[in-house]
């Protein structure tokens, strides 16, 4: 076999190109996302837009508006709850539960958030332990003798034994 300097140079160049391209195909370096600043006034506008859309039967538009509202003001429990209920109706149970959990970080004493998280956890996610925790918290917060919820709690306790 004869030595061909041109062929050796071409092979070296191709190898170098493959190494460079391989480096370009590596993992992306991600910059941290900018945190969204809260803006309760703008959030209120999106909340109203979502409520109007919901009342007109435009649930997709309501979800989009309420998501923006929650992003701008995650402390507004009514918007969090409304959005979670629409997500539940759209069979987006895990997303609804996650939203309610985030809402409870900001509003831990809002009974309706606990109740709806308990229902979604029990009936749709089959997370009985989470359901029991939130039914109990709901009952503590409402201080009512709700026999239906008491029955659900007793049933969950039996099922978890």
Write the layout of secondary structure elements.
Elements (H helix, E strand, L loop, with lengths): L4 H20 L15 H16 L3 H14 L4 H13 L3 H14 L4 H14 L3 H15 L4 H14 L1
InterPro entries: TPR-like_helical_dom_sf, TPR_rpt
Protein name: Tetratricopeptide repeat protein
Keywords: Signal, TPR repeat
Provide structural commentary.
With 161 residues, the protein is mainly α. The chain has one domain (38-160): Serine Threonine Protein Phosphatase 5, Tetratricopeptide repeat (Alpha Horseshoe), CATH 1.25.40.10. It is built from eight helices and no strands. It has helices spanning 5-24, 40-55, 59-72, 77-89, 93-106, 111-124, 128-142, 147-160. Helix 2 (40-55) packs antiparallel against helix 3, helix 3 packs antiparallel against helix 4 and helix 4 runs parallel beside helix 6. Mean pLDDT is 86; it is low at 23-32.
**CATH-defined architecture:** Alpha Horseshoe
Following the backbone from N to C, one meets helices and strands in this order, namely HHHHHHHH
Number of domains: 1
Whole-number average pLDDT?
86
Low-pLDDT residue spans: 23-32
CATH class: Mainly Alpha
Strand content: under 5%
The CATH superfamily title: Tetratricopeptide repeat domain
What global shape is seen?
globular
Question: Which characteristics define this entry?
Answer:
globular, 161 residues, Serine Threonine Protein Phosphatase 5, Tetratricopeptide repeat, mainly alpha, single chain, 8 helices
